[in-house]
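Minutes, structural biology subgroup

Action item carried over from last meeting: produce the C-alpha cell record for Ribulose-phosphate 3-epimerase (Desulfocicer vacuolatum DSM 3385). EB confirmed the sequence was re-checked against the source entry. Recorded below for completeness.
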Amino acid sequence: MAIIAPSILSADFTKLGKELKDIDDAGAKWVHIDVMDGQFVPNISYGPIIVEACSRATDLLLDVHLMIERPDQMIPAFAKAGADLICVHAEACTHLHRTVQLIKQSKNDKKNPIKAGVALNPGTPLSAIEWVLDSLDFVLIMSVNPGFGGQSFIPSTLEKIRTLDQMIKERNSRAIIQVDGGVAPDTIFDVAKVGTESFVAGSAIFNTPDYTATIQGMLEKINQAKSHGD
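Output recorded by EB:
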C-alpha cells in the first residue's frame, strides 16, 4: 500500500493540530518530521518537543528524519517523544550499523519498537547502505539536496531508486523505499513507477487549498504507475 507522508516543514505551525487532522482525514498514513540542526544542513527546524506535540495530536505514524550531526546522541530523546520511525543520514554516522541498532533497540512513548531507516543524499552511492540493508525497515532516497523545502526533483534520482529496488529484491530485504524532495503531482507517477512505496511531500500538499484532493490525486497516480509497470 502506498504511503503518503506529508512533511510538516511546510505546514502552518499556528494551527499544527488542525493541519495534522486535515492530512489524516485526507488519506495520509505517516507524518514526516524534518529535524535540522544548522550543521549537517544549513537550516534549523525543531526538536523533540514538536514530535511530542504531534504524538499528542494525531494517531498518524511519526516519521522522524534526522538531518543532524551525531544522531546517536539524540535518538533516545526522539524515541521518548513518540517517534514511530527514525531515519538517520549515512553521511552523518561514523558507525552506521551501531546507529541503526540503537534505533531498533529503542521504544517510543507507547512502548512500541521503532522502525529504522537510513537516508542517502543525491551524491551518496547505494553502497553506503549495502551492508546494513538487512537491518533496515526503509531506505530514504533524497531527490533534492537536504536543508530546504520546495526544491525541484533531481531526475537522475530515478535510476538510483530503480537500482535500489532491484537490490532489495535480490537480497529479499523487507526494507521499503521512501523518496523525499520535489515529490509532487507532476513527478509522483515516475517516482512510483521505479519502486517507491513511501512518498514525502511538503509544499506540494500544504500549499494547496484542498489536501484531500491533492493526496487522493497523488494516490491515484501512484496506483496508475504501479499497474502500468515498467
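Discussion: Residues 3-228 form a domain with the TIM Barrel fold (CATH 3.20.20.70).
Next step: EB to file the record with the rest of the batch.
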